[in-house]
Amino acid sequence: MEGTLADGVVRVGGDARQRFYDSRGYGRPLDRNRIELAPVEAAHLLARGDLDAVVDGSGSGDGGASRRLDFRAYLARTGATLRFAVYKDLRDRGFYLSPARAEWPGVGGDAAGSDDVDFVVYPRGKGPWDDEIAYRIRVAGEREPVRADSLGGVTLAVVDEDGELTYFETDREPDLVAGAEGEPADDVSAGGDRTVAPDADAEPSLPEEVAADLLGDRVVCYGDADALYERRFYGQRLFGRNAEEGPIQLSLVEGAYLAQRGVVDADPAAVVALGREVEGERFDRRLRTYADLRDRGVVPKSGFKFGADFRVYAEFTDVDSLSHSTDLVRVVAPDRVFYPRDLSLDVRLAGGVRKRMVFALTAANGEIDWLSVARLTP
Questions:
Q1: Is 355 assigned a catalytic role?
Q2: Among 21, 26, 313, 339, which one carries the catalytic annotation?
Q3: Distance (Å, rounded) from C-alpha 80 to C-alpha 92?
Q4: How far apart are CA 358 and CA 337, in angstroms?
Q5: What is residue 335's three-state secondary structure?
Q6: Which residue out of 21, 44, 167, 355 is catalytically annotated?
Q7: What is the pLDDT of residues 282-331, one digit of tens each?
Q8: Is residue 125 scored above 90 in pLDDT?
Q9: Which of 23-27, 50-54, 193-197, 367-371 shows the lowest mean pLDDT across its residues?
Q10: Which of 110, 119, 207, 339 is the most buried (most CB within 10 A)?
Q11: How far apart are the first and last CA of the chain?
Q12: Which of 253, 233, 260 is nearest to 315 (CA)?
């Protein structure tokens, strides 16, 4: 059996509908028993031997004549190599899948014709006729740049230079930025009572106007500063982690956040100015992300030891009962371009320390989109 390549699709006649679409979910039905295949679907049928050849009907052969393409010639003609690798892998795993084309059965919705989706994958045992989608797949080579704002709600399938595949699940608005009912968490006072999340005023339960000095790249607090550390895990003790008393040193983002809320008596403008001096405009993005996390009831701390901006504690009672942090957060601009190698490194590191990798896509106006990325085995 042969197909004909023309206008970016391969058309197959005979009993193609029964053989390929009805029984195995390839292509889309046409009139009578004919079907239309996307290039990658035809490549898979050629590789399996279900199609003997594809006739290039575009007149691109010698002298404009049509020519029969075997699998090798067909891949060279269509350039479908990376998509073929992913398509075959998912077929081998027992899935039916379709190219993200508006005309294909089962696609529909925001996946149809999207530049950010290459395939829709149906749950095992289901096909394009069941109106149910398990994954939306985006295909990329390991050296291909991927825009951060194109991720979220898609599974990134990366084909490395050896042809090995790695799948990354990407989601927007991960749970770390929401309370139990999907809304921002209320702020928790030192006594454990839930109160309204703080705005520009000082946080409940914290002392006001704690004496502080801006020293180097940190804010050092004196006097009534124990509550900052013990009850809310701001800063670290200047005398070391085993000390039970003494001054508290705050990072610049912590110092700016508390100074802006009147908790420490450092000049907030001076702290922010120093932050911008040592970090540039990135300091404003990190401060906005830090504030958003704190205001939602989770506890962000430095993520330096993990190569991130923050590590995040989703639950916190006091320092003595501190649990493990749950997430690593990296602050990036919304137009950030990821390279799969770097993305893989971040996700692998987070997974190795049993944390989730989260990116805060923080715009200059302060708006934040949260993007989580994790390894996935379909």
A1: yes
A2: 313
A3: 18
A4: 15
A5: coil
A6: 355
A7: 999 999 999 999 988 899 999 999 999 999 998 877 777 778 889 999 99
A8: yes
A9: 193-197
A10: 119
A11: 32
A12: 233
Distance between CA atoms of residues 257 and 264, nearest Å: 9
Do 207 and 188 meet the contact criterion of CB atoms below 8 Å apart?
no
324 is catalytic: yes
* 48 burial via Cβ count (<10 Å: 0-12, 13-18, 19+): exposed
Structure tokens at 161: 């230079």
Helix 39-48 / helix 71-78 crossing angle, nearest 10 deg: 160
Assigned token pair, 299: 């506890």
> Are the C-beta atoms of 354 and 326 separated by less than 8 Å?
no
In this predicted model, what pLDDT tens digit does every residue of 322-369 receive, in sequence order? Answer: 788 899 999 999 999 999 999 999 999 999 999 999 999 998 888 999
The region of weakest confidence among 13-27, 165-179, 336-350 is: 165-179
Reduced to 3 states (helix: H, G, I; strand: E, B; else coil), residue 276 is helix
Active-site annotation holder among 44, 229, 324, 339: 324
Tokens 């007149």 sit at which residue?
59
The Cβ-side half-sphere exposure at 251, using a 13 Å CA radius, reads: 17
Do residues 211 and 202 make contact, with C-beta atoms less than 8 angstroms apart?
Answer: no
Please report which confidence band the pLDDT of residue 203 belongs to, taking 50, 70 and 90 as the band edges. Answer: very low
Which region holds residue 156: left if phi is over 0, alpha if psi is between -120 and 50, else beta?
Answer: beta
CB 91 within 8 A of CB 97: yes
Rounded to whole angstroms, the Cα distance separating 320 from 163 reads 48
